[in-house]
């Protein structure tokens, strides 16, 4: 019995946007060693779409890539490995963006995008599995412990990629740019890969496993509890009178009776929702506790759902009015060593753009305002977040459409509410599996794709 896997394609190209997305960096930058100056990183300028890689006549626009890494010129020449002293300084390497996807169950094909102008200017490769660098030792993918010899050619990597352990949920290409000729440098552009994931619904992957997962991991609004001690206080269950608050951290505590201007914070420890002050607090004192909490966050596939399970709550519910655009392009991972050259082709499917209703509900009016503010802060500038699905590695965009509107007057007393709309954009799969196509006819002419 063979499990059916959904095939997914990923581009690991040397662009700032991909490094920001894959590495959670504010300014994307390829990891390079020994220092950034030892490997040059170049992006195609505004006047050009990118650099052409590989065969000139191929299927689709696969050959134009926007970023590349190469050895820098020094006084008009490239430093050879011996002049650079690789033995002492280590190989000059650059790493592609990393791919991490918990749903990976098989690695199918990879194409390393590179140029090796002579036999003296070459690129040697390793694959990173999320923990360490590996190389193909002729029989298996093994730990790359020898900095000089534990490397592979692009042909070896591509030929043995299907044997890359399916238990590895991460992938990154490590390229050693090596030259013994001062007139030539190899060039590394990144990689393309196709892998098999356990089947996950497209919208479920984008909304629940990506957006909602990020909100649960990051959204921590602030709330305030204020009360008077009736006896000496040695411990306190935070927000005990406010049902539904999953308290995460006590941010600050003040004795308003003795310190009405809140100048001196009271030290203490929070454990299992119970705050224990370092020094017991006498009876008859008014205390203010500021704490962060995890809201009740849910999604619904039915827009008419109205039951409120617990507050504070953030509800994301798919709404009518979405749209999608077909994408007839194919994602190709080429085998240029084959004669004639072939590629593993994956239909891209369609780009879905779904509307999502956003509903925020709280018991207290101030908490509604604080939760709205925290929600905007989670988005960041422009009220937009771009993600990679932690399950499949596919890209997801989530954008808030305008401001959230206070709609408290529509509800019964005791519930404060704000509503808005967001747009969820993601790629919906076309074919679940890839197929092999030929890139060149026997007479050397190439195929083209027609809409």
How is this fold's topology laid out?
Layout: E1 5-13, H1 16-23, E2 32-33, E3 40-43, E4 51-52, E5 64-65, E6 67-70, E7 73-74, E8 77-78, H2 81-84, H3 86-89, E9 93-95, E10 99-100, E11 104-115, E12 121-128, E13 133-136, E14 141-143, H4 154-159, E15 170-179, E16 187-198, H5 202-218, E17 222-228, E18 236-237, E19 246-255, E20 268-271, E21 274-277, E22 286-294, E23 296-299, E24 313-335, E25 342-362, H6 365-379, E26 384-388, E27 395-406, E28 416-428, E29 435-438
Parallel strand pairs: 23-24
Antiparallel strand pairs: 1-16, 2-9, 3-6, 4-5, 6-16, 7-8, 9-15, 10-15, 11-16, 12-13, 12-15, 13-14, 17-22, 18-21, 19-22, 20-21, 24-25, 25-28, 25-29, 26-27, 27-28
Short description, anyone?
The protein is built from 6 helices and 29 strands.
Q: Give the N-to-C terminal Cα separation.
A: 38 Å
Radius of gyration: 28 Å
- Structural class by helix and strand composition: mainly beta
- The shape, in one word, is elongated
The domain count comes to 3
Q: Output the CATH topology of the largest domain.
A: Jelly Rolls
What percentage of amino acids are in beta strands? 35-45%
Average pLDDT number: 90
Q: Please state the second-level CATH architecture of the largest domain.
A: Sandwich
| Number of strand elements | 29
